[in-house]
Write a structure and sequence with these properties.
Protein name: Tol-pal system protein YbgF
Structural class: mainly alpha
GO biological process, one term: cell division
Helix content: over 70%
Keywords: Coiled coil, Signal, TPR repeat
CATH topology of one domain: Serine Threonine Protein Phosphatase 5, Tetratricopeptide repeat
CATH superfamily of one domain: Tetratricopeptide repeat domain
CATH architecture of one domain: Alpha Horseshoe
Radius of gyration: 48 Å
CATH class of one domain: Mainly Alpha
Strand content: under 5%
Shape: rod-shaped
Pfam families: YfiO
């Protein structure tokens, strides 16, 4: 605009200074003025286009800044998640290590019992052989044998009951109460205070039927048997397995109580040892 004004001023000034204008000069002036108007319009369009581009660039810049801020926020959140994940991973690995160690101890303990006892569930005395023979002669179906075994359990004839449950396992693999027979064999040993045999019988039942409704009870009784053997360390591991595997069961509640009792007794033992040490030191 300034260029056009300067040009017009120069033309007008030259007209006044010269005092007269020829036809050619006047036509030239008109052409110059028209050209200047055209250039002015082109300049306006260029300015408008430039302003549009600047506005777009400004908008893009604001968007880029917002995206950058969002990326920084997301990066910070991701870093927090990574830290949390690492903590969880560490806890998981620690718990897995502890569980593997406990289960290995339990497995080793059971292996010791298996090595100590030779065929605990199949060895028979002469009395038990006579019971088996009598059972085979008088009972012809697994339900009758099973019912008879429970009558023996009620009368505390545990050896006789065990032989009948073993007879079912041996000869009636499709019997619907076969899993129960495995469980009750463990019960016969437990009631006879043959705790090592009971542990192996419960373990055999659990390996075959880990999801059976008697599984929580079998695992709990296995822990109780270890307690009876004065093996509190292994008993605690077994009780913790009850809590882990069957958390909603009544057996889990009992197992929690037993774990608390074991920990309490262990702490009491430590306090007693500390007191004895102090007494010896004072002397």
């Amino acid at each position: 605009m300034k260029k056009i004004k300067i040009a017009l001023t120069g033309i007008i000034a030259s007209v006044f200074l010269s005092g007269c204008v020829t036809t050619d000069e006047f036509q030239q002036m008109k052409a110059d003025i028209a050209r200047l108007y055209v250039e002015n319009n082109q300049l306006k369009n260029e300015i408008s286009d430039l302003k549009t581009r600047v506005d777009k660039m400004s908008s893009d810049l604001n968007t880029a800044v917002a995206l950058k801020e969002g990326q920084l926020t997301l990066l910070a959140q991701t870093q927090d998640y990574v830290k949390e994940l690492q903590l969880l991973k560490g806890r998981f690995e620690e718990n897995s290590f502890q569980n593997e160690r406990k289960f290995k101890e339990l497995s080793d303990r059971i292996s010791e019992l298996q090595a100590k006892l030779t065929q605990p569930t199949t060895s028979t005395t002469k009395e038990e052989q006579q019971v088996t023979k009598s059972t085979q002669e008088t009972l012809k179906n697994p339900k009758s044998i099973y019912d008879s075994a429970h009558i023996d359990m009620k009368n505390k004839n545990f050896a006789s009951a065990r032989q009948k449950f073993q007879e079912i396992i041996k000869n009636y693999p499709d019997f619907e109460l076969l899993p129960n027979s495995y469980f009750w064999i463990g019960e016969t040993y437990y009631n006879e205070k043959k705790y090592e045999d009971a542990i192996l019988a419960y373990e055999e039942f659990l390996k075959k039927y880990p999801k059976h409704d008697k599984a929580p009870g079998a695992l709990l009784k296995e822990g109780m048997a270890f307690l009876e053997l004065k093996d509190k360390k292994t008993a605690k591991v077994v009780f913790e397995r009850v809590i882990e595997r069957y958390p909603q069961s009544k057996e889990a509640e009992i197992a929690q109580q037993k774990v608390a009792e074991i920990l309490k007794s262990q702490n009491s033992g430590k306090k007693t040892t500390t007191k004895k040490t102090k007494t010896k030191t004072n002397r």
